[in-house]
Design brief:
The protein is an alpha+beta fold. The protein is built from 2 helices and 2 strands. The protein has a domain of 41 residues. Helices cover 31% and strands 15% of the residues. It has a two-stranded antiparallel sheet with strand order 1-2. Strand 1 and strand 2 form a beta hairpin. The termini are far apart.
Length: 65
Protein backbone atom coordinates (compact mmCIF):
# COMPACT_ATOMS: atom_id res chain seq x y z
CA UNK A 1 0.00 0.00 0.00
CA UNK A 2 2.82 2.41 0.83
CA UNK A 3 4.35 1.74 -2.59
CA UNK A 4 1.13 2.89 -4.25
CA UNK A 5 1.38 6.28 -2.53
CA UNK A 6 5.02 6.69 -3.46
CA UNK A 7 4.37 6.03 -7.16
CA UNK A 8 1.21 8.15 -7.40
CA UNK A 9 1.72 11.41 -9.30
CA UNK A 10 1.02 14.63 -7.47
CA UNK A 11 -1.35 17.22 -8.86
CA UNK A 12 -0.65 20.96 -8.89
CA UNK A 13 -4.30 21.67 -8.16
CA UNK A 14 -4.96 23.44 -4.86
CA UNK A 15 -8.23 22.67 -3.15
CA UNK A 16 -9.42 24.99 -0.41
CA UNK A 17 -11.80 23.40 2.05
CA UNK A 18 -13.02 25.88 4.62
CA UNK A 19 -14.56 24.31 7.70
CA UNK A 20 -17.44 25.73 9.65
CA UNK A 21 -18.76 24.77 13.02
CA UNK A 22 -21.67 26.43 14.77
CA UNK A 23 -24.13 25.72 17.55
CA UNK A 24 -27.84 25.45 16.84
CA UNK A 25 -30.88 24.66 18.93
CA UNK A 26 -31.95 21.66 16.85
CA UNK A 27 -31.43 17.89 16.88
CA UNK A 28 -28.49 16.83 14.69
CA UNK A 29 -30.47 14.28 12.68
CA UNK A 30 -33.09 16.89 11.79
CA UNK A 31 -30.44 19.27 10.45
CA UNK A 32 -28.63 16.52 8.56
CA UNK A 33 -31.90 15.50 6.91
CA UNK A 34 -32.60 19.11 5.94
CA UNK A 35 -29.21 19.35 4.20
CA UNK A 36 -29.82 16.08 2.36
CA UNK A 37 -33.32 17.14 1.28
CA UNK A 38 -32.12 20.53 0.08
CA UNK A 39 -29.34 18.84 -1.89
CA UNK A 40 -31.92 16.85 -3.84
CA UNK A 41 -34.12 19.84 -4.72
CA UNK A 42 -31.57 22.32 -6.07
CA UNK A 43 -28.54 22.29 -8.39
CA UNK A 44 -26.46 25.26 -7.22
CA UNK A 45 -24.24 23.00 -5.15
CA UNK A 46 -23.72 19.31 -4.45
CA UNK A 47 -24.49 18.11 -0.94
CA UNK A 48 -22.67 15.04 0.32
CA UNK A 49 -23.05 13.59 3.79
CA UNK A 50 -20.58 11.26 5.51
CA UNK A 51 -21.68 10.27 9.01
CA UNK A 52 -22.32 13.59 10.77
CA UNK A 53 -20.32 15.70 8.30
CA UNK A 54 -21.95 17.64 5.46
CA UNK A 55 -19.90 18.69 2.42
CA UNK A 56 -21.16 21.34 -0.01
CA UNK A 57 -19.39 21.39 -3.36
CA UNK A 58 -19.84 23.77 -6.27
CA UNK A 59 -20.19 21.85 -9.57
CA UNK A 60 -17.19 22.22 -11.93
CA UNK A 61 -19.22 23.98 -14.64
CA UNK A 62 -20.28 26.67 -12.13
CA UNK A 63 -16.80 27.30 -10.72
CA UNK A 64 -15.22 30.48 -12.04
CA UNK A 65 -11.87 30.85 -10.36
Amino acid sequence: MLLHYLIMELSNEIILRPRFKFKVNEINNVLLSLFEDKGKTQSDFIVTRVDVHVFNKIPKQKQHF
